[in-house]
Amino acid sequence: MVRRSGRTGPAEAMWQASRLDYAAMTPLRDDGRTIHASGRPDRGQEAGHGLDPQTVRAEFLALDQTVHGHPLVYLDNAATALKPRCVIEAVTRMYARDCANVHRGVHMLSQRATDAYEQARESVGSFINAESAAEVVFVRGTTEAINLVAQAWAIEHIGPGDQILITGLEHHANIVPWQMVCKQVGAELVAAPVDDTGAVPLAEIQARISKRTRLVAIAHVSNVLGTVLPVRAIADLAHASGALVLVDGAQAVPHMAVDVRALGCDFYTFSGHKLYGPTGIGVLWARRDILASMSLYQGGGGMIQSVTLDRTLYRDEPYRFEAGTPHIAGAVGLRAAIEYVGTIGFEAISAHERDLLAYATARLGEVAGLRLIGTAGDKTGVLSFTIESVHPHDIGTVVDTRGVAIRTGHHCAQPLMERFAVPAMARASLALYNTRSDIDALIDALLVVEEMFG
Ligand code: PMP
Fold this sequence. Notes:
Elements: H1 9-20, H2 53-58, E1 66-67, E2 70-71, E3 73-74, H3 85-96, H4 108-127, E4 136-139, H5 142-157, E5 163-167, H6 176-185, E6 188-192, H7 202-206, E7 213-219, H8 231-240, E8 244-248, H9 260-263, E9 267-271, E10 282-286, H10 288-293, E11 304-307, E12 312-314, H11 328-344, H12 346-364, E13 370-373, E14 382-387, H13 392-400, E15 404-405, E16 407-409, H14 414-419, E17 425-429, H15 436-453
The chain binds 4'-deoxy-4'-aminopyridoxal-5'-phosphate.
4'-deoxy-4'-aminopyridoxal-5'-phosphate (PMP) binds at residues 141-143, 171, 173-174, 219, 223, 248, 250-251, 271, 412.
Protein backbone atom coordinates (compact mmCIF):
# COMPACT_ATOMS: atom_id res chain seq x y z
CA MET A 1 0.00 0.00 0.00
CA VAL A 2 1.26 3.47 -0.81
CA ARG A 3 1.28 5.75 2.21
CA ARG A 4 1.05 9.37 1.28
CA SER A 5 0.27 11.11 4.53
CA GLY A 6 3.90 11.51 5.61
CA ARG A 7 5.18 12.93 2.36
CA THR A 8 6.53 16.42 2.17
CA GLY A 9 8.59 18.47 -0.27
CA PRO A 10 8.50 18.89 -4.01
CA ALA A 11 7.68 15.29 -4.84
CA GLU A 12 4.52 15.55 -2.76
CA ALA A 13 3.68 18.91 -4.31
CA MET A 14 4.05 17.35 -7.73
CA TRP A 15 1.91 14.41 -6.74
CA GLN A 16 -0.79 16.73 -5.53
CA ALA A 17 -0.57 18.78 -8.71
CA SER A 18 -0.81 15.70 -10.85
CA ARG A 19 -3.91 14.47 -9.00
CA LEU A 20 -5.81 17.61 -8.46
CA ASP A 21 -4.82 20.70 -10.22
CA TYR A 22 -4.53 20.51 -13.97
CA ALA A 23 -5.60 24.12 -14.17
CA ALA A 24 -2.40 25.10 -12.37
CA MET A 25 -0.25 23.32 -14.92
CA THR A 26 1.61 25.05 -17.67
CA PRO A 27 -1.16 25.97 -20.09
CA LEU A 28 -1.69 24.18 -23.37
CA ARG A 29 -2.72 25.79 -26.60
CA ASP A 30 -5.61 24.35 -28.56
CA ASP A 31 -3.17 22.36 -30.67
CA GLY A 32 -1.78 20.74 -27.53
CA ARG A 33 1.52 22.66 -27.56
CA THR A 34 2.89 23.95 -24.31
CA ILE A 35 2.87 27.69 -23.84
CA HIS A 36 6.00 28.95 -22.14
CA ALA A 37 6.47 32.20 -20.33
CA SER A 38 8.29 33.45 -23.40
CA GLY A 39 5.29 32.51 -25.53
CA ARG A 40 7.71 30.94 -27.95
CA PRO A 41 7.46 27.24 -28.75
CA ASP A 42 9.96 24.90 -30.33
CA ARG A 43 13.33 25.05 -31.96
CA GLY A 44 16.05 24.69 -29.35
CA GLN A 45 18.67 26.40 -31.43
CA GLU A 46 16.94 29.72 -31.71
CA ALA A 47 18.61 32.46 -29.76
CA GLY A 48 16.94 32.51 -26.37
CA HIS A 49 16.35 34.83 -23.50
CA GLY A 50 19.56 34.16 -21.62
CA LEU A 51 20.10 31.87 -18.68
CA ASP A 52 19.40 32.88 -15.13
CA PRO A 53 20.58 29.92 -13.02
CA GLN A 54 18.17 30.54 -10.16
CA THR A 55 15.13 30.75 -12.47
CA VAL A 56 16.31 27.63 -14.25
CA ARG A 57 16.94 25.73 -11.02
CA ALA A 58 13.44 26.46 -9.74
CA GLU A 59 12.08 24.40 -12.66
CA PHE A 60 14.00 21.27 -11.63
CA LEU A 61 12.13 19.85 -8.66
CA ALA A 62 14.73 17.16 -8.00
CA LEU A 63 17.32 19.80 -7.14
CA ASP A 64 15.26 20.79 -4.13
CA GLN A 65 16.40 18.03 -1.80
CA THR A 66 19.21 17.09 0.52
CA VAL A 67 21.37 14.00 0.22
CA HIS A 68 23.15 12.77 3.36
CA GLY A 69 22.22 16.08 4.95
CA HIS A 70 23.73 18.22 2.17
CA PRO A 71 21.96 20.06 -0.63
CA LEU A 72 22.01 17.86 -3.72
CA VAL A 73 24.73 18.76 -6.21
CA TYR A 74 23.90 16.88 -9.39
CA LEU A 75 26.91 16.40 -11.65
CA ASP A 76 25.93 13.16 -13.39
CA ASN A 77 24.23 14.80 -16.34
CA ALA A 78 26.04 12.79 -19.02
CA ALA A 79 24.34 9.69 -17.58
CA THR A 80 20.94 11.32 -17.46
CA ALA A 81 19.72 14.88 -16.94
CA LEU A 82 17.10 15.99 -14.43
CA LYS A 83 13.67 16.92 -15.79
CA PRO A 84 12.09 20.36 -15.70
CA ARG A 85 8.55 20.82 -14.43
CA CYS A 86 7.10 21.24 -17.93
CA VAL A 87 8.37 17.80 -18.98
CA ILE A 88 6.92 16.13 -15.89
CA GLU A 89 3.65 17.96 -16.47
CA ALA A 90 3.51 17.04 -20.14
CA VAL A 91 3.98 13.35 -19.34
CA THR A 92 1.49 13.52 -16.45
CA ARG A 93 -1.07 15.28 -18.60
CA MET A 94 -0.69 12.68 -21.32
CA TYR A 95 -1.54 9.87 -18.92
CA ALA A 96 -4.11 11.87 -16.98
CA ARG A 97 -6.07 13.46 -19.79
CA ASP A 98 -5.13 12.19 -23.24
CA CYS A 99 -4.50 8.55 -22.40
CA ALA A 100 -5.23 6.56 -25.52
CA ASN A 101 -3.40 4.63 -28.17
CA VAL A 102 -2.31 6.38 -31.35
CA HIS A 103 -3.01 5.84 -35.06
CA ARG A 104 -5.97 3.54 -34.71
CA GLY A 105 -8.80 5.15 -32.77
CA VAL A 106 -11.51 7.43 -34.14
CA HIS A 107 -12.48 8.65 -30.68
CA MET A 108 -11.41 12.01 -29.32
CA LEU A 109 -8.80 10.81 -26.87
CA SER A 110 -7.10 8.72 -29.52
CA GLN A 111 -7.12 11.68 -31.89
CA ARG A 112 -5.60 13.90 -29.23
CA ALA A 113 -2.94 11.31 -28.44
CA THR A 114 -2.16 10.88 -32.14
CA ASP A 115 -1.92 14.64 -32.66
CA ALA A 116 0.36 15.03 -29.66
CA TYR A 117 2.59 12.19 -30.82
CA GLU A 118 2.86 13.54 -34.36
CA GLN A 119 3.43 17.09 -33.13
CA ALA A 120 6.32 15.72 -31.10
CA ARG A 121 7.77 14.29 -34.31
CA GLU A 122 7.43 17.72 -35.96
CA SER A 123 9.18 19.33 -32.99
CA VAL A 124 12.08 16.90 -33.17
CA GLY A 125 12.34 17.45 -36.91
CA SER A 126 12.62 21.18 -36.56
CA PHE A 127 14.93 20.85 -33.52
CA ILE A 128 17.58 19.12 -35.64
CA ASN A 129 16.61 20.94 -38.85
CA ALA A 130 15.43 17.82 -40.65
CA GLU A 131 13.92 18.39 -44.06
CA SER A 132 10.75 16.63 -42.97
CA ALA A 133 9.23 15.05 -39.88
CA ALA A 134 8.98 11.85 -41.93
CA GLU A 135 12.74 11.50 -41.43
CA VAL A 136 12.26 11.16 -37.66
CA VAL A 137 11.84 7.65 -36.27
CA PHE A 138 10.98 7.32 -32.59
CA VAL A 139 12.95 4.62 -30.80
CA ARG A 140 13.86 3.83 -27.19
CA GLY A 141 17.12 5.73 -27.26
CA THR A 142 20.49 6.09 -28.94
CA THR A 143 21.25 2.41 -28.40
CA GLU A 144 18.14 1.27 -30.22
CA ALA A 145 18.64 3.84 -32.99
CA ILE A 146 22.13 2.52 -33.73
CA ASN A 147 20.97 -1.08 -33.59
CA LEU A 148 18.15 -0.22 -35.98
CA VAL A 149 20.63 1.15 -38.52
CA ALA A 150 22.88 -1.86 -37.96
CA GLN A 151 20.12 -4.37 -38.63
CA ALA A 152 17.96 -2.54 -41.17
CA TRP A 153 20.68 -0.81 -43.20
CA ALA A 154 24.16 -2.14 -42.49
CA ILE A 155 23.62 -5.86 -42.95
CA GLU A 156 22.08 -5.15 -46.36
CA HIS A 157 24.73 -2.71 -47.56
CA ILE A 158 27.93 -4.02 -46.02
CA GLY A 159 29.55 -7.22 -47.20
CA PRO A 160 32.60 -9.43 -46.81
CA GLY A 161 35.85 -7.46 -46.89
CA ASP A 162 34.12 -4.10 -46.35
CA GLN A 163 35.04 -1.91 -43.41
CA ILE A 164 33.19 0.08 -40.77
CA LEU A 165 35.23 2.91 -39.29
CA ILE A 166 34.68 4.10 -35.73
CA THR A 167 36.97 5.95 -33.30
CA GLY A 168 38.69 4.92 -30.10
CA LEU A 169 36.44 7.09 -27.95
CA GLU A 170 33.08 5.52 -28.76
CA HIS A 171 30.43 4.45 -26.27
CA HIS A 172 29.76 0.71 -26.32
CA ALA A 173 26.45 1.53 -28.06
CA ASN A 174 28.50 2.65 -31.06
CA ILE A 175 30.91 -0.30 -30.97
CA VAL A 176 29.02 -3.48 -30.15
CA PRO A 177 26.28 -3.23 -32.86
CA TRP A 178 29.05 -2.84 -35.47
CA GLN A 179 30.97 -5.81 -34.11
CA MET A 180 27.74 -7.77 -34.47
CA VAL A 181 27.29 -6.58 -38.07
CA CYS A 182 30.90 -7.40 -38.93
CA LYS A 183 30.45 -10.89 -37.56
CA GLN A 184 27.18 -11.35 -39.46
CA VAL A 185 28.50 -10.18 -42.85
CA GLY A 186 32.24 -10.83 -42.68
CA ALA A 187 33.27 -7.16 -42.61
CA GLU A 188 36.03 -5.55 -40.55
CA LEU A 189 35.78 -2.96 -37.78
CA VAL A 190 38.52 -0.32 -37.83
CA ALA A 191 39.08 2.36 -35.16
CA ALA A 192 40.84 5.69 -35.52
CA PRO A 193 43.02 6.34 -32.45
CA VAL A 194 42.56 8.98 -29.79
CA ASP A 195 45.48 11.33 -29.02
CA ASP A 196 46.71 12.28 -25.55
CA THR A 197 44.30 15.19 -25.26
CA GLY A 198 41.32 13.01 -26.12
CA ALA A 199 40.90 14.32 -29.65
CA VAL A 200 40.74 12.15 -32.76
CA PRO A 201 42.97 13.85 -35.33
CA LEU A 202 41.29 14.20 -38.71
CA ALA A 203 44.43 12.78 -40.35
CA GLU A 204 43.96 9.52 -38.41
CA ILE A 205 40.43 9.27 -39.75
CA GLN A 206 41.45 10.19 -43.27
CA ALA A 207 44.22 7.56 -43.20
CA ARG A 208 41.63 4.87 -42.48
CA ILE A 209 39.01 5.79 -45.06
CA SER A 210 39.28 3.87 -48.30
CA LYS A 211 37.06 2.39 -50.98
CA ARG A 212 36.48 -0.49 -48.53
CA THR A 213 34.86 1.84 -46.00
CA ARG A 214 31.07 1.55 -46.18
CA LEU A 215 30.17 3.37 -42.97
CA VAL A 216 31.84 5.86 -40.63
CA ALA A 217 30.13 5.77 -37.21
CA ILE A 218 31.29 8.44 -34.79
CA ALA A 219 30.24 10.20 -31.62
CA HIS A 220 29.43 13.87 -32.03
CA VAL A 221 30.64 14.40 -28.44
CA SER A 222 32.48 11.91 -26.23
CA ASN A 223 30.57 10.95 -23.09
CA VAL A 224 33.86 10.51 -21.20
CA LEU A 225 36.09 13.30 -22.44
CA GLY A 226 33.63 15.85 -23.79
CA THR A 227 35.64 15.99 -27.03
CA VAL A 228 33.61 17.43 -29.92
CA LEU A 229 34.40 15.64 -33.18
CA PRO A 230 34.60 17.60 -36.44
CA VAL A 231 31.58 15.87 -37.92
CA ARG A 232 31.29 17.97 -41.09
CA ALA A 233 34.92 17.42 -42.08
CA ILE A 234 34.64 13.69 -41.34
CA ALA A 235 31.40 13.45 -43.33
CA ASP A 236 33.06 15.14 -46.31
CA LEU A 237 35.95 12.66 -46.23
CA ALA A 238 33.58 9.70 -45.89
CA HIS A 239 31.30 10.82 -48.70
CA ALA A 240 34.23 11.44 -51.01
CA SER A 241 34.93 7.72 -50.66
CA GLY A 242 31.30 6.65 -51.00
CA ALA A 243 30.77 5.79 -47.31
CA LEU A 244 27.77 6.86 -45.24
CA VAL A 245 28.08 8.58 -41.88
CA LEU A 246 26.25 7.81 -38.65
CA VAL A 247 26.55 10.24 -35.76
CA ASP A 248 25.91 9.25 -32.15
CA GLY A 249 24.57 12.55 -30.87
CA ALA A 250 23.62 11.41 -27.36
CA GLN A 251 26.03 13.86 -25.71
CA ALA A 252 25.68 16.68 -28.22
CA VAL A 253 21.99 17.57 -28.29
CA PRO A 254 21.83 18.87 -24.70
CA HIS A 255 24.72 21.27 -25.28
CA MET A 256 24.70 22.65 -28.81
CA ALA A 257 22.43 23.43 -31.73
CA VAL A 258 22.39 20.43 -34.03
CA ASP A 259 21.64 20.89 -37.71
CA VAL A 260 21.74 17.54 -39.43
CA ARG A 261 21.83 19.14 -42.86
CA ALA A 262 24.76 21.40 -41.98
CA LEU A 263 26.59 18.44 -40.41
CA GLY A 264 26.18 16.55 -43.67
CA CYS A 265 25.64 13.21 -41.96
CA ASP A 266 23.32 10.43 -43.11
CA PHE A 267 22.09 9.14 -39.75
CA TYR A 268 21.84 11.04 -36.46
CA THR A 269 20.82 9.40 -33.19
CA PHE A 270 20.03 10.68 -29.71
CA SER A 271 18.23 9.92 -26.45
CA GLY A 272 15.52 12.04 -24.85
CA HIS A 273 16.70 11.54 -21.30
CA LYS A 274 20.00 13.36 -21.70
CA LEU A 275 18.12 16.33 -23.16
CA TYR A 276 16.00 16.84 -20.01
CA GLY A 277 13.30 14.59 -21.49
CA PRO A 278 11.91 11.21 -20.41
CA THR A 279 13.76 7.92 -20.47
CA GLY A 280 12.71 5.29 -22.99
CA ILE A 281 12.34 7.70 -25.90
CA GLY A 282 14.96 8.52 -28.49
CA VAL A 283 15.39 9.44 -32.10
CA LEU A 284 16.82 8.03 -35.26
CA TRP A 285 17.04 10.63 -37.99
CA ALA A 286 18.00 9.55 -41.47
CA ARG A 287 17.68 11.13 -44.89
CA ARG A 288 14.35 10.15 -46.41
CA ASP A 289 15.89 8.36 -49.40
CA ILE A 290 18.06 6.31 -47.08
CA LEU A 291 15.13 5.43 -44.81
CA ALA A 292 13.18 4.40 -47.88
CA SER A 293 16.01 2.08 -48.93
CA MET A 294 16.22 0.35 -45.56
CA SER A 295 14.82 -3.05 -44.86
CA LEU A 296 12.38 -3.73 -42.06
CA TYR A 297 13.42 -3.74 -38.42
CA GLN A 298 10.61 -5.22 -36.34
CA GLY A 299 7.23 -6.51 -37.50
CA GLY A 300 3.86 -5.98 -35.86
CA GLY A 301 1.00 -3.53 -35.59
CA GLY A 302 1.38 0.11 -36.53
CA MET A 303 3.86 -0.53 -39.36
CA ILE A 304 1.53 -2.29 -41.80
CA GLN A 305 -0.85 -1.19 -44.51
CA SER A 306 -2.59 -4.54 -44.83
CA VAL A 307 -2.00 -8.09 -43.73
CA THR A 308 -3.33 -11.35 -45.07
CA LEU A 309 -2.14 -14.72 -43.92
CA ASP A 310 0.00 -14.85 -47.05
CA ARG A 311 1.56 -11.42 -47.28
CA THR A 312 1.88 -7.99 -45.72
CA LEU A 313 2.06 -4.54 -47.25
CA TYR A 314 3.97 -2.03 -45.20
CA ARG A 315 3.49 1.65 -44.44
CA ASP A 316 5.95 4.31 -45.53
CA GLU A 317 8.74 5.57 -43.36
CA PRO A 318 8.91 6.50 -40.55
CA TYR A 319 5.98 4.30 -39.49
CA ARG A 320 7.32 1.08 -40.92
CA PHE A 321 10.14 1.31 -38.36
CA GLU A 322 7.78 1.81 -35.42
CA ALA A 323 6.11 -1.54 -34.83
CA GLY A 324 3.84 -1.77 -31.80
CA THR A 325 2.51 0.87 -29.43
CA PRO A 326 5.11 3.61 -29.20
CA HIS A 327 6.19 5.54 -26.11
CA ILE A 328 3.55 8.23 -26.67
CA ALA A 329 4.02 10.07 -23.37
CA GLY A 330 7.78 9.86 -23.87
CA ALA A 331 7.56 11.58 -27.25
CA VAL A 332 5.30 14.27 -25.78
CA GLY A 333 7.71 14.75 -22.87
CA LEU A 334 10.61 15.01 -25.30
CA ARG A 335 8.79 17.73 -27.14
CA ALA A 336 8.29 19.63 -23.89
CA ALA A 337 12.03 19.29 -23.23
CA ILE A 338 12.85 20.63 -26.69
CA GLU A 339 10.53 23.56 -26.11
CA TYR A 340 12.11 24.14 -22.72
CA VAL A 341 15.68 24.39 -24.05
CA GLY A 342 14.23 26.55 -26.83
CA THR A 343 13.09 29.13 -24.30
CA ILE A 344 16.68 29.48 -23.11
CA GLY A 345 18.53 28.96 -26.37
CA PHE A 346 21.77 27.15 -27.08
CA GLU A 347 23.80 30.31 -27.25
CA ALA A 348 23.04 30.98 -23.59
CA ILE A 349 23.31 27.31 -22.60
CA SER A 350 26.71 26.80 -24.15
CA ALA A 351 28.07 30.14 -22.88
CA HIS A 352 26.98 29.16 -19.37
CA GLU A 353 28.44 25.66 -19.62
CA ARG A 354 31.70 26.92 -21.15
CA ASP A 355 32.14 29.31 -18.25
CA LEU A 356 31.52 26.50 -15.76
CA LEU A 357 33.88 24.16 -17.58
CA ALA A 358 36.71 26.71 -17.43
CA TYR A 359 36.01 27.36 -13.75
CA ALA A 360 35.86 23.65 -12.91
CA THR A 361 38.99 22.85 -14.89
CA ALA A 362 40.95 25.50 -12.99
CA ARG A 363 39.58 24.45 -9.60
CA LEU A 364 40.26 20.73 -10.14
CA GLY A 365 43.92 21.72 -10.43
CA GLU A 366 43.81 22.45 -6.67
CA VAL A 367 43.33 18.78 -5.80
CA ALA A 368 46.63 17.00 -5.18
CA GLY A 369 47.28 13.97 -7.41
CA LEU A 370 44.30 14.69 -9.67
CA ARG A 371 44.78 13.82 -13.34
CA LEU A 372 42.26 15.39 -15.70
CA ILE A 373 41.68 13.17 -18.73
CA GLY A 374 40.29 14.93 -21.79
CA THR A 375 41.75 18.31 -22.60
CA ALA A 376 40.87 18.66 -26.27
CA GLY A 377 40.52 22.21 -27.56
CA ASP A 378 36.88 21.70 -28.51
CA LYS A 379 35.07 20.05 -25.61
CA THR A 380 31.79 20.25 -23.71
CA GLY A 381 31.32 20.30 -19.94
CA VAL A 382 32.60 16.86 -19.03
CA LEU A 383 35.43 16.46 -16.51
CA SER A 384 36.84 12.96 -16.18
CA PHE A 385 39.66 12.38 -13.75
CA THR A 386 41.57 10.02 -11.52
CA ILE A 387 43.24 10.76 -8.20
CA GLU A 388 46.55 9.07 -7.51
CA SER A 389 46.19 5.97 -5.31
CA VAL A 390 42.42 6.35 -4.87
CA HIS A 391 40.04 4.05 -6.70
CA PRO A 392 37.43 6.06 -8.64
CA HIS A 393 34.64 4.17 -6.88
CA ASP A 394 35.98 5.43 -3.55
CA ILE A 395 36.00 8.98 -4.93
CA GLY A 396 32.35 8.62 -5.96
CA THR A 397 31.31 7.10 -2.66
CA VAL A 398 33.01 9.77 -0.55
CA VAL A 399 31.70 12.72 -2.55
CA ASP A 400 28.20 11.23 -2.36
CA THR A 401 28.38 11.52 1.43
CA ARG A 402 28.62 15.28 0.79
CA GLY A 403 25.58 15.24 -1.47
CA VAL A 404 27.61 15.39 -4.68
CA ALA A 405 26.49 13.00 -7.44
CA ILE A 406 29.20 12.08 -9.94
CA ARG A 407 29.71 8.90 -11.95
CA THR A 408 32.56 6.45 -11.63
CA GLY A 409 33.46 3.41 -13.67
CA HIS A 410 34.27 2.69 -17.29
CA HIS A 411 31.39 4.84 -18.59
CA CYS A 412 30.53 2.21 -21.23
CA ALA A 413 33.76 3.07 -23.03
CA GLN A 414 36.19 0.35 -22.03
CA PRO A 415 38.48 0.75 -25.08
CA LEU A 416 38.95 4.38 -24.03
CA MET A 417 39.87 3.29 -20.48
CA GLU A 418 42.48 1.02 -22.02
CA ARG A 419 43.78 3.89 -24.17
CA PHE A 420 44.43 5.97 -21.06
CA ALA A 421 45.65 2.92 -19.11
CA VAL A 422 43.10 3.21 -16.29
CA PRO A 423 40.45 0.70 -15.21
CA ALA A 424 37.95 3.46 -14.45
CA MET A 425 37.56 7.21 -14.11
CA ALA A 426 35.49 9.59 -12.01
CA ARG A 427 33.35 11.94 -14.11
CA ALA A 428 31.58 15.18 -13.31
CA SER A 429 29.34 16.32 -16.15
CA LEU A 430 27.58 19.67 -16.40
CA ALA A 431 24.11 20.81 -17.36
CA LEU A 432 22.35 24.13 -17.73
CA TYR A 433 21.25 24.20 -14.07
CA ASN A 434 24.72 23.77 -12.59
CA THR A 435 26.45 26.71 -10.94
CA ARG A 436 29.89 27.66 -9.69
CA SER A 437 28.72 26.72 -6.18
CA ASP A 438 28.16 23.17 -7.45
CA ILE A 439 31.79 23.10 -8.59
CA ASP A 440 32.90 24.50 -5.22
CA ALA A 441 30.94 21.73 -3.46
CA LEU A 442 32.65 19.13 -5.67
CA ILE A 443 36.08 20.54 -4.87
CA ASP A 444 35.30 20.61 -1.12
CA ALA A 445 34.18 16.99 -1.35
CA LEU A 446 37.34 16.04 -3.26
CA LEU A 447 39.43 17.70 -0.56
CA VAL A 448 37.72 15.31 1.89
CA VAL A 449 38.80 12.43 -0.38
CA GLU A 450 42.32 13.83 -0.36
CA GLU A 451 42.30 14.02 3.46
CA MET A 452 41.00 10.45 3.80
CA PHE A 453 43.30 8.80 1.30
CA GLY A 454 46.18 11.25 0.92
N1 PMP B 1 26.26 7.12 -26.88
C1 PMP B 1 26.73 7.97 -25.97
C2 PMP B 1 27.85 8.91 -26.36
C3 PMP B 1 26.20 8.00 -24.69
O1 PMP B 1 26.69 8.84 -23.78
C4 PMP B 1 25.15 7.10 -24.37
C5 PMP B 1 24.56 7.08 -22.98
N2 PMP B 1 25.50 7.06 -21.95
C6 PMP B 1 24.69 6.25 -25.35
C7 PMP B 1 25.25 6.28 -26.60
C8 PMP B 1 23.57 5.30 -25.09
O2 PMP B 1 22.40 6.00 -24.82
P1 PMP B 1 21.09 5.25 -24.29
O3 PMP B 1 21.55 4.42 -23.11
O4 PMP B 1 20.18 6.34 -23.89
O5 PMP B 1 20.59 4.41 -25.39
